[in-house]
Amino acid sequence: MVKQLGRPAERDSEGNKISKSLVNVTIPTKLRDFLSDNNINRSQLFTRVVTMLYCHLLCPKCYQTNIMDNPMCIRCDDCDIVIKYHNCSLCGEQYNKKNLVQAVKKSSDLGCQTCQK
Ligand SMILES: [Zn+2]
Ligand SMILES: [Zn+2]
What we know:
The chain is an alpha+beta fold. It has two helices and five strands; from the N terminus they run ααβββββ. It has a domain at 87-117. The termini are far apart.
């Protein structure tokens, strides 16, 4: 048996080994001290925050987690920014400020203003 050096490798939900690499980030000294004083693992924190941002669970502007998902978009309820517009389920066009969600006549479906003109 080969002796395991260090911690056992982390595995994903399918059991595959998660390969890792070192990235350098430059942060304010005060933030570095805060992380160090509070024994916060920077690798875990970075991975967690970036994953949350990618999954739209964290607002990229105010960093709050009060994220609302409605038929038109994913938005932050705290600072009221749109994080991501959805596409119209009928025509595939992306919603935007001028192409709003609209009820489809004689149906419970929702479409966009572009295809429901
Ligand atoms: Zn926000
Ligand atoms: Zn549409």
